[in-house]
Structure formats: structure tokens, C-alpha cells
Amino acid sequence: LVLSCSVQASHPNLVITQADVLDMRKAINEQGRFATAYKNLKAKVDLQMALPIEVPVPKDGGGGYTHERHKKNYQLMYDAGILFQLSQDKTYADYVRNMLLAYAQLYPTLELHPARKVKSQNSGKLFWQSLNEAVWLVHTIQAYDFVYGALSAQDIKRIETNLLKPVALFLSEGQPSTFNKVHNHGTWATAGVGMAGYVMNEPEWVEKALYDLEKSGKGGFLKQLDELFSPQGYYNEGPYYQRYALLPFVTFAKAIDNNDPQRKIFQYRDGIVLKAIDTTIQLSYSGLFFPINDAIKSKGIDTIELVHGVALAYSLTKEPGYLDIAKQQNQIILSGNGLKVAQALDQGLAAPYPFISVAFGDGSDGKQGALVIMRSQLAGDQAVLFKPAAQGLGHGHFDKLTWQFYDQTKEIVSDYGAARFLNVEAKFGGRYLPENESYAKQTVAHNTVVVDETSHFDGDVEVGNANAPVLSYFETSSRGTVSSAKIDTAYQGVELKRTMALVNLTELEKTIVLDVFDVVASGEHQLDLPLHYQGQLIDMNFALSVSTDQLSALGAKNGYQHLWLKGRGLPEQGLAKVSWLNENGRFYTHTSLVNGQEEFLFTQLGANDPHFNLRNEQAFVRRVNNKKQHQFISVLEPHGEYNPGKEYTLDAASQVTQLSYSQQGEVMLINITIAGVSYLIAINQVPDGSIKQNFQYQDQSFSINSRLAVFALNDDEE
Amino acid sequence: LVLSCSVQASHPNLVITQADVLDMRKAINEQGRFATAYKNLKAKVDLQMALPIEVPVPKDGGGGYTHERHKKNYQLMYDAGILFQLSQDKTYADYVRNMLLAYAQLYPTLELHPARKVKSQNSGKLFWQSLNEAVWLVHTIQAYDFVYGALSAQDIKRIETNLLKPVALFLSEGQPSTFNKVHNHGTWATAGVGMAGYVMNEPEWVEKALYDLEKSGKGGFLKQLDELFSPQGYYNEGPYYQRYALLPFVTFAKAIDNNDPQRKIFQYRDGIVLKAIDTTIQLSYSGLFFPINDAIKSKGIDTIELVHGVALAYSLTKEPGYLDIAKQQNQIILSGNGLKVAQALDQGLAAPYPFISVAFGDGSDGKQGALVIMRSQLAGDQAVLFKPAAQGLGHGHFDKLTWQFYDQTKEIVSDYGAARFLNVEAKFGGRYLPENESYAKQTVAHNTVVVDETSHFDGDVEVGNANAPVLSYFETSSRGTVSSAKIDTAYQGVELKRTMALVNLTELEKTIVLDVFDVVASGEHQLDLPLHYQGQLIDMNFALSVSTDQLSALGAKNGYQHLWLKGRGLPEQGLAKVSWLNENGRFYTHTSLVNGQEEFLFTQLGANDPHFNLRNEQAFVRRVNNKKQHQFISVLEPHGEYNPGKEYTLDAASQVTQLSYSQQGEVMLINITIAGVSYLIAINQVPDGSIKQNFQYQDQSFSINSRLAVFALNDDEE
Ligand SMILES: [Zn+2]
Ligand SMILES: [Zn+2]
User: Which of A526, B115, B196, B573 is surrounded by the fewest CB atoms within 10 Å?
Assistant: First the structure.
């Protein structure tokens, strides 16, 4: 253990230091983004400070008046505190002081919150959950630190004795189960208590925050850094929750660095804090987070937690790509890191952020499956998300091996995300809708195989948490990105194995997505592979029987009850094509190589939805029956442009004219003819992908010494 | 008659003059938008000129190879011609010369086009329709004019004798029915022939173009200016066709002005050319044209026809608002007018274009009903389109008295527009879809009353063309905009009368839309009033019986066969509310004042649509049965904000708490309480709206001497 040896000397010294303050004071008198942000915050806070201070007796749960008021108060104290530091105008310090004194008067009178939820979470006193109380402390301790120098000794005593120390003790000794827990809620508690320790010169509190109440190292902030992220910085619940989890890590780590630089917190676990920030950015497309698990789709990189994260990442690395993200966030925070970002942006130092193709190993050891992202810039900014990731706890979806596709800023092959209208009272009180369980989490709501109309793990989250898929391989090169994964625990006696590739056809300036989904079972089953597409259906190349004046639900449960069956068709052996037009103006054709046994079911979401809670999205489901074994093979091809504004339409028809699949030893061979060019795509499946494989194809010899190879064939027929 | 006395002296002298050319040559050597546009065009044309010239023997109809090639050729000749004038590089002139000579060789060998459509339209020789041939001439004659100075006397003779004169004669003497017709197709012909007359010194052709082949004045360009636009410059078929019709008017008028300034063409009919341009702009919202009639929704002000129009409008008026539009168009044309726009934009002279509330009288006399636009900037940029306009010929919809609403850049209450995927072969050859007739044109596809599930005029376009609604009044002031209109010919024995207002509630910084629809019939009928809304249904304040596992079509014909009935409810007497959330993040609540007899039918588009041609949009239909008389009264209220990205939701619930309706003499009185404020809205219906009316309400005396008054009532209850 590294013992703390800091001496509490000066204020402020948490996230923002005295040196930062001097720089910031200079900057607000110059032109630039920082000064603008300062003026905007000042105008906003001045409006609030004109109103009387309200510190109500706690009464309401989440969303209610006293709850929202106490949330507003900690933000106001924080903002007024930083304004005091920058302006040196004592009015701001007085405002914080008066509010702190009001809290110091109230707090000793409080019992546990009257609206507490006894079973589900530890209660706070100001708030119904101790989580909110910890967030309150994280902000308030910083505000206190800002105004410390303007307080009388008597005020300091009252505030520390009656408010800040009791809150810190309540959140640590008072709730060991949360404080010691290796969980995001624990992080807020350790961050608050640890920072309180720095400010009020209680080094023991810092030790406990870092190593748990017993200083055992089994819990506490460092253990949280060890376990809540994978070695690459991926957070098990997915990006929507990752960005939320980020803030206490970023905040407390910076305070530790300022107070105890010898702890080298930013080097901890090979720089895990920075990795966690960077991974959050990588988990976005066109400014929005990939909507896996219970994610609300409009959440993106401009979220305030990531504004803090990016400011820290830039200040640690000076990588100009972070400035590009900061520019899109369009928000400057008033801190030392924020100043560095603002000044660099003013100087025009931003450069494109390098989005990459990557497999993020899941779980604290990075071995609980992986979240795979494939990107290409060949034909516009594209991304495939492939998800052989772990369940991701209670907000996880039963979506093993699902995928999504993004092109030209839009979702093309999509995930429903969470079924929820956040804070809209009329929609189930703004909470997760019943349809989140009955549809959004179910396997059929995803682009992966459903066996016998039953969700993965039979919809049991505990079983899901205990059984992750296995990432077989991932490789990226100039020819594209390929990955393969499998899972044999989603269904008893069934192995699911999926191989996906985003392939660059450089000669054609085109990309395609290859998808080979193998199912091998011990008994016979019905196998469904849905594809949820975004856009208007344009065409298919096979006959369809359409339900024109009567619709029924596709099934009775596990999400099927929410799908209207609009039409069905059984394409003959060969290529089965379905085309749609996305709102981005591009066409997409999904070509399946079928054997005459795959039925295509076209669906629309919205059945059994009495409150109109669901968006009416479209899908088609490939179905085979009574199968012990089946291989779903398909190619997704973006093409053409629909521009009715300029009155032209280009390449509205698919250019895939031939597709065949074969295997030689461990090498998967896909022969595809597209726009008149014949390609042989080889995927090497041997356990050790670096071992060179030789194979023959159409009387030619080939070899592959990587996972993916793409050969342009001599086309003798032309 | 004003006789032409111009002497053909110099080239070029059509849309672009020699003086323009000198200015443009200077500008391309300076920095700025014009030089950039020049370089871009040059790069584009250079690429094309590197390929061999192709002047194929005509064979294909619209969309086919020879058709598209000849279209491409006239644009190429035009572009190369202007590049020759600007660069003085003879390569460009040679290219135009060579192509013209190729045409001069081909043209004498041609008969009427093999793919001509004998019954529907005059045939061309290069194209299947003479319309395309006229467009070809309008471009080609300008290209010829550009390169004239670089041609030998021999070339001139061959080109004029074998090509240009025959084409001009073919389009005039050769097809008197089109040339003399007061119709948009006639405008292209007269423009082409008239300009050919200027270039080839045939003043008689100019006379015929202006006054018809007999020079009678019964047809020709001037008559077209008289009759195709209303006095305010509104084109009967609506904005989608108006912008298309605009180009030959703008082009030929400019050529007339340059050659025969004494004709004062831009003052003709009180400046109708400029009015037509300006009206086209007014008929847009957020850059897109209002999609009435057979309109494709993504068509907007950046359409090339309007780029030409705006350049002319700016050059005629120097109004900085046109620069604002030009900026949004983001395209500079290489002409004298284009240069003026580019330079003014470079100087930063643009100012917001003044969009106004206005009633455009329809028909050449302006008295065939009207298209009404109401705008407000009080709560963001809003527009109501109210349509007591004439049928608008074959592309018109059976939508008398319908309305649309726009807010914060989006459609809120919408029109389907045309059912068509322009040029998408798989979608019915890219033509209008069958569903354009069976759904999009039908009354139920609009937000207006349908009697007995039958469309207006029983769907007969001839009857529609002969019977326009009557605009009773229109008025706009700081309190808002109000209009009322009626029609008694849409259904036999039924009078439809609608009064709409976009009302500013200044104290609340809110707007509402008032809608009172009166139906009076001689017999009993079923009356339906649909409302097509854009967004996710959030809530209604009455019980609904929802079809959860089986859907059926709402009806059998006239568009009803395409609507799935999702649910129905019969609200009790009082206020019936339906709320939805638009993708712009705002909530909208439609509150109807009901008497317990209006049933609400919730529908989704998509029944009887075997080819998935329709977008699956939502509506609700208010229905009463066996009624001789009914009044549909409602208020549309925008409110709140949904921002899941920033995690807040404001005012998701309607703030209308009370609504009542009464009438005193000719004054309509709507009392509404919203956000705790009680308003009395009075609408004066007397024939002469300027006569002051007195009335009592809740023991207070009021008077109104305009159409619309809004009084904030003393609310004794508070
Ligand atoms: Zn999901
Ligand atoms: Zn319409």
C-alpha cells in the first residue's frame, strides 16, 4: 500500500487546483471559448441567485419537488463556487455559504428519507436513495473547497461538523454494503468520501475510499478500477451506462492526482481511466452511442459525463482527436482541463478523432466474450457492431451474437434500444415500459438466431450473466475486418456460431457485410433469424403472400406477440434478395444464399401494444423448421442514391449477381460477383490464424496467412 | 402590339450579355463564390469532354439511354459554351461546335420519335415528347449563342440550316396545338422558338412566340403570363409544379429584356415574373415546398429552377432576403445575375428572407379560392397551410379545405404528398404508384371532412377543376392570422365551411391553432374528419378499445381500404385530447370539444398494400353518424420538450384545461384556459369584417372591429 502523505495546505485542490484558477482568471479576460463559457454560466447562475435559497425538508422520491430541488442545489453550489474562484466576487461565495449553512441546520434533524425503497437500495437522508446523496457530496464538497477561503472559522466548524462530516460518515461507515461494493454506486460513495477526506484533512477517509472501510483492498476505488472495466476499458453494461459510470471515476482520479501525485493514479492498471474514456468515444457512431442493452437512442458523445472525460483525456494526452470530439460536444467546462481544451480549440488544433475497428474484450479479465466494432471509410463512414458480449447485468438484452449496421450517419440494420420515454409521465411514469421486458429485451427484437421462439437463456438474466459467448478471433486490415464467435449456452444442446466481416472491395469503392451464421443442435428445432431494417421496403426477388386486409400477430410470447405478420414468401434455391431505402438516400440489399427451405416472414412492430408504446418498425425473419443444423448465409450491400430533390436515382438495383459458399478444410470461401467483378473471399478459421493455409479454387492455387483475404478472380466468362 | 425592332448585333445576347461576360471574366480571376463555382463547373465539364461525343439515334423513351444522353448533351453544350465565354479557351467552343455538327448531321434524317406516346402528347424527334425537345432547344440555342463568335460561316450555315431552324419550325409551325396552348408545355416551346428568333435574327419568330402563331394574342408567352399565374403569382398546380414551370418564364423573360428592353417585360402584368418567383419561395417551410397535390416531399428551394429564379429576383430588386435564400441554395450559376448574387454573398449582404402570412388567390383572376399560409415566430418558426384552393388540374388532390401544420423545422399535421419513388425502377417503374390514385389523392388521406367515405367531387377531377372553394376572409395581425372558407360543390347537398386561426398567446409565448369545421347537409350522412399526425402517440384522455392481436382495414374504397384500424374510442362530452411527440422533440396535443357523439378511430396506413409502397403513417379520424349538421371544434397546442440526450422532459402534458364555444350574432367566441390563463378569442364572421361588432361575455362588454381579437379574461376563480 502507498500511504497518503499529503498535507492539506490549500484550497481549492480537488479537480481544480490553485494553479488552474490563476490560468482561468487570465483566460476569462481574453477572447475565446473559455471566456464565453464563463459568461454564459455567470448569466445563468446570476438568474438563479436572484431567487431565494430553498433547502426543503426531504419528502419526495425521484422526480418530485424536494428531490429535484436538492439536485438543483448541489449544481448551483458547484457553479457559484467556481464563479467565486474565477470572478473573486464574494457574492458567489456568500451564496454558497448561506446554502451550506441552511443544509447544516437541516441535516442534523433528518432521519432516513421518508420515501426510501427499503428493499432495493440503501436510503439517503436528503434523497430517497443513498446514490443521490453520494452525487450530492461529490458536487458539494467541491463547492465547499471553492469557497473555503472566504469562510469564517465559525462557519467552517458549523458546516463541517453538522453537515459535511456527518454526510461523509453516513455514506461510508453508515452504509458499508454500498461503500465497499464493487459497483458503480460504490464509486460515487468512495469518490465523495475520498474527496471529503482531502478537503477536511481526514487522510483515513481517503485510505478507506481507496481500499474499503477495512482498508483490505477487497473493495474501494482501486478495486472498482480493477473490476468494473475490462482491460481495454469496456464497461460491462454497454456505452449508455458506461458514460454514466464514468463521471465519479474521472472526478476522483483527478482529485487523487492533484493531492497524491505519487499514487500515479492515471497509470493505474495500465492507464485504465484514460482507456475507459477513450472506449466510450469508440462506442459511438455519428455522435450517438451504439444502442445496445437498455439504451435510449438519442444519447451521445455530448453527454456531460463525457465532456468531463474528454477534457481529462485531452489534458493527459494532448491528442488532437479529443479536440474533435470536444468540438462536437460544443460545451466547455470551467476547469483546468476545460481551459486546456478551450485554448486548443481556439488555436484550431483539432484533428479527426481516429475511430478504429476493435474487439473490446468483455468482463474484468477481458475474456467474457467481446463487443466488436468494424469500421470502414471506403464508401462513406460505416460501422458494423457485432455483439458476442456478455449479458451486461440487469439492463442487458438477450441478444447474443447480434449485429447492427450503420452507414452515412444513419442506422441501417438496427437494435430497438430501450422501450422507454424518459420522464414522460403519460408513458408509464417515464420509467422502462412493460414492452421493454416483453419486446425490447427479447431475442426476436435483435438480429440473431431465435430457437423455437424462445429467447436466449430462456430470458433468465442470471443464467445470461453466468454464460458469455466466446470470441474465436478478430482481425482488421486494409481488406476489411473479420470476427467469429460462438456460444453453446444460450440454448441447451444448441451451438450458435457466427462469422461476420465488413469487406472493402477497393476496386469498386464499395463495401459489403458478410454474415455466416451456423446453428448445430442435438435435436430438431425451428430457427428464426430476424433482420430489423430501417427504411422503406423497395423490393424482393421472390413471390410474397401478403396479408392485405387482415393482420395477425406472428406469435404469442417472447416478443413474437408484438410483431404483425405482413407477408411471407419461400424463395427458391439461389439468391433471395430484399432491398430497402434508408432515409439517408442510399439503397441496401440483403442477399441470402438459400436452399429453398428458408421462409421469409415480413413483420411490423405494434401488435399487442394497447398504449401505442412501441415504434412501428420493420423486420424480416428468415425461418427454417425441424432442423438439427442450418447455415444462414448472407451479404448486405449498400448501393446507389435516391435524390428526388435533385431528381435523380442511381443504382437502385442490387449489383450482386452471383454468390456461392464452400469450405476447404478450415477455410471458408465466399465467391461473389458484384458489379461485374468476381471476388473470392477467404476466411481462415483455424485456431491459430497466423498459420498459412493453401487451397484451390476454380483450378487456381491460393494461400492465406491471415484471417481474411480478398482475391479478384480472373473472370473468364467476360 | 409592340413590334420588335431589335437588330441582331452581337453574341451572346440571350440570358447572358456581352457586358455580363466582361464582368464574369474579371470575377473568375478573383477570390470568391463565383470563381469557385467556375472552377467546379470547369472540372466537371473537363471530365466529360475527355470522353467521346455521343449523339445516338433516338430510340428510348423517358429514362432510357438515348433519352438520358440527349438530355445530358444539351446541358454539356450549355456548360461548355459558358466556359468558352469565360475562359476564352477555344477547346470549349470546339466541343460545342462538334456536337452541334453531329446533331446537324443526325437531325435531317429523323422521323417522329419511335417511342412516342400518340394519344397523350405531341411527339418530338430527338425525344419521345416534344416537351423535352423544347427544353433541348432552350439550352442548345443558348449554347450556340455562346460559341457563335468562334464558328466559321460554313459551320453557322450547316448548324442553322440543318438543325436549329428545323427544330424551331418543328416546335412552332410543326405543333400549333402545343405552341399556342396556354400551358406550361407551351411556355417551353415559345421560349425556345423566341430565343432562336433572337439569335438567328428571325424577328417574326419572336412575335409568334409572344403572341401565338397567328400573332393573335390568344396564345403565346404573354398570354401564358396572363393566365398561368394568379395576380399574386400563384401557379394553380401548387409549388411542386410551380418551381418547374418557372424556368422557361425566367429564361425567356430575361432574353426579352436584354433584346427588347422597350417591351418592359419585367413590368408586365404588374411584375408577374418576379411575383411568380417570390411566391415560389413563400410556398416553402424550412427549405422544402409545402407538399400539396402530387408533390415529392424532399423537393425544396434549392431546386435548380429556383436558383435561376432567385438570381433574377435579386438582380431585379436587390432585396437582401433573396440572398438568404441563395445562401441556402448553396449554388452559384455562371450568369450575370449569378455573379451579382455571388458578389453580394461574398460581401455578407444577406438578410433574413421575410416569410409572411398570406392568402394567395387561386386561378388567373385570383378568385378561384385561395391557398392560405399563416406564420408565427412567437414560439419558434411555425406555419399553418390552409387549402381552400382550386383542384389544380390532373395532379390535384381531393383535399378541399385541408390543412397542414409545421413547427420547429418539421411536419406536425401532414399531407402524404405523392405516392411515388421517382425513377426507382422497382417501384412501378419510378412513375406515380397505383396508390397515388387509390390513396394519396383521396380525401381521407387529408385533414378535411369526408362525407360517407367518398372523396370530394366523387373523385372526378373534371368536376373538381370546375368548382373551387370560396375564400370568405383572411386577416393577419400581431394577434395572429385567421381565415375562413367554404365549398358547397364537393358533395351534393352538403356545405363545408372551415374557419382556422393561428393565434399568438403573447403572454404565454405560445401559439395555438384553432379549427372550427361546420358541415350542413340536406340529408343525413356519416362525417369523418381525419388528422394525419407525425410522431409517436403519447396519450389520450379517453378509453380506447384497441385491436391488439388482429387488424382489419377501416373500409373498402376511396382510400379507406389502405387504413388499418388500430383502435377506437368514444369520448364523453367535454374535452377529448390526443397527444403525440414529434421527432423535433416537442409534444403536440389536439383537444376537441366533443358532445359525446364523435368517435375517434386510430389508424395506420398500410392495408391492401401488397408491394409495401406506402409509408406506414398514423392518423386519427373523428367520426359522427347520421348527421345533417355537425361542428368539429378543436385546438392544436404545441408544448414542452423531450430531450432524452440531456435527460430532461418539460411540459409533456397539455396545458389546456378548459375550452368552450359559443356564437353571438356573427361573432364566434372561443373561451380557452391554457397554462392557467383564460382567453376569449373572438372571430368576426360578418361579410364586411371592418364593421365593429359589440358583444357581451361573462357580464363584460367587448367589441371587435377586425376579424380576430384575443382578450385575456379576468379569472375570478383564481
Ligand atoms: Zn437490444
Ligand atoms: Zn395531398
Answer: B573
